[in-house]
Amino acid sequence: MATSVRARNGGSPSPDAPPSRSPRPGARAPGGPSARRSRLYRWDLKATPYVFVAPFFLTFAAFGLFPLLYTGWLSLNRVELGGDPQWKGLENYSDLADSDFFWNALANTFTIGVISTVPQLLMALGLAHLLNYKLRGRGFFRVAVLAPYATSIAAATLVFAQLFNTDYGLINSALGLVGFDPVDWESSKWPAQIAISAIVTWRWTGYNALIYLAAMQAVPQDLYEAAALDGASRWRQFLSVTIPSIRPTILFTVIVSTIGATQLFGEPMLYGGSVGISGGSGNQFQTLSLLMYEKGWVTGALGQASAIAWVMLLLLLLVGGLQALISRVNRKKLGG
Q1: How far apart are CA 99 and CA 289, in angstroms?
Q2: Rounded CA gap, 68 and 52, in Å?
Q3: How far is CA 329 from CA 213, 215, 259, in A?
Q4: CA angle, corner 10, sides to 9 and 16, nearest 5?
Q5: d(Cα 308, Cα 298) in Å, to the nearest integer?
Q6: R_g over Cα of the chain
Q7: Dist CA 270 CA 192 (whole Å)
Q8: Each residue of 206-234: pLDDT tens digit?
Q9: Which of the 8 DSSP states describes residue 274?
Q10: How far is residue 286's CA from residue 108's CA, in Å, rounded to a whole number?
Q11: Cα–Cα distance between 69 and 76 in angstroms, integer?
């Protein structure tokens, strides 16, 4: 009792009392510079990744998102070059629905896309299958099939325009040697579309072949060895092993080729020469991109051109949705 009284009165503390803790020399109080540095460090960890990716989003907003939204707004107005916009609502879209030129361009885009994409991907599959085997000079052939992709659109189109020339083209000369009459590759609808599709096929077959080749090389060799032990030929291995294994890659190339066909512009414009923008003298190979260019910069109807651009965007979104649906169905089949 006396000991506790002395402790309260400033005497020596009780032996049972815990020792008092005095601050260490040089220790900083809470909220000092070390605490601020800790907060700055946490903010640095959180904000630095956003700072690194910010240039992409700023560039996309300036050159991607804003033009997209502005084009959508223009599609709802009547806009002439040098004039003020006049609100029209969905009138530009209804005019497209009633326009024979629009439906002709849509049909041409579809047909050129089909007759260029299907042969292109089939040939790419065959080339990739051949390059997947151990051939002499395989590296050279892999580089050679990519050479057309590195060629400019203008150069390739000018060469093919000479090959398909009606009067002195090499194609008509070869047809004459086997007894066929000359074909009007420029003024006739289907010959002109076939010629343009040949340009697209020549440029993109090697590119798709290398994509297929990369996918084929990722297929496990055990599958081929098991198929060979079962007596499967190379053709049967290709159909039963290779194609199912690279099915996602095939779907990817189909979607990308479809998108490219929807945006086809350079090949038909250069092939047609002076009437390339209108898709020939009778609009026989005018695509949606050519019609959009003609509406916007030849006739000056920027509102209608913007409406065509948004129709093309909706078509691409439809293609993307179809791809997602097919991929989901394939995943369910594999999971089941």
Answers
A1: 16
A2: 25
A3: 25, 21, 21
A4: 95
A5: 15
A6: 34
A7: 12
A8: 999 999 999 999 999 899 889 989 888 88
A9: G
A10: 6
A11: 11
Structure tokens, 110: 């579809």
Do residues 292 and 308 lie in contact, with contact meaning Cβ atoms separated by under 8 Å?
yes
Query: Are residues 285 and 268 in contact, defined by beta-carbon separation less than 8 angstroms?
Result: yes
- Residues 6 or more apart whose Cβ sits within 8 Å of residue 20: none
Pair 260, 207: CB distance under 8 Å: no
Tokens representing residue 88 in the block: 């029209």
* Residue 262 in tokens: 């929807």
- Report the pLDDT value the prediction gives residue 3, as an integer from 0 to 100: 46
Structure token digits, residue 162 = 């000479």
**Residue 316 carries which side chain, given as an amino acid letter?**
L
25, amino acid identity: P
pTM of the model: 0.81
Residue 297 is classified by DSSP as I
Amino acid at 132: N
H helix intervals, the chain: 2-8, 33-60, 66-74, 91-97, 100-131, 138-150, 153-163, 170-177, 189-217, 221-229, 234-237, 243-245, 247-262, 266-272, 288-293, 302-335
The residue to which tokens 């020792």 are assigned: 19
